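User: Study the fold:
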Amino acid sequence: MPKKANIYDVAKLAGVSHQTVSRVLNNHSSLKPATREKVEMAIAELSYRPNQAARQLVTSKSRMIGVLIAESELFGPSSMLNAMQDVARKEGYSVISISVVTKSRDSWREGIEQLRNLDVDGVITIALHKDIVKEIERYLLGITIVLIGSEPSQKFNVVNMDNLMGAILATQHLIDLGHTEIVHVAGPENAYEAQMRRAGYEQTMKSADLVPKVFAGTWSIESGYLAGKEIAGLKKLPTAIFTANDHSAIGLIKVLHEQGISVPEQISIVGYDNIPESNFVIPSLTTIKPNFDALGNAAIEKMIMQLRQGNSKEAVMLKPELVIRNSTVAAQSGKRKK
């Protein structure tokens, strides 16, 4: 088996010092382009891979970024995580993701302890509430933190989708179709994204002199199914429903079908998230499309920039869009078919 190349082999082939090779590996800004190119060519020719443990001893940096994430099985969080991993890899960082249960303080602390043991350079949180962020600050003193889908903060870089705007787009779409009896199936009450979606719905309804009505829910298909049972039992059916996410909408569509209530002829439905399944349910789901890849990219770029340059904190707000499919039509009678 051939001997693995080391930093001195690279330096010899490139005709530079091993310190110069180290500066290239650490993306030092003072290098001349021609020098960087020589070193990179030598690295490629020798298939050199730096020893991560040795680099950590020299630089006191692990080049690992931790991600604390809840509901990692959902399309949005998993899409953001994939996008972050792609960018981080290209920039020479590794992403370590740890799932936590938002309702379990023990779960938060176990996840934070794992990140502390790994000595990560920074932590990105995905849709975690402020109490968990406080725990991260407390147990990982001085750590660089970037938040996704969380309340605005002057202490950290925050990257959010404009959930208020998305809910306004969804609700206004139904109003423009002539619906006046529009209800909202909400997400978890302690989730910032769910709070903003509910606020956008209520704001738009009140602006149109309509009465908002909210049913409790979570992000799950089952919660949509249960809310749908409650709605189907009402004496007077709404003519439209805006759900906090697409999974909830899918649960709703199923139970309404079981109850003999047709979608969209009797009840139009708008979801949120534009998950892949939303285009394949029957009827295909009108929904709000966030750009999850852009969210993940923005968060990891903010993290890497802050680790390298210690830049000032800012909030990034990305705009969603309305995707109209077959689950919404102009308002009909809203009465149950006989």
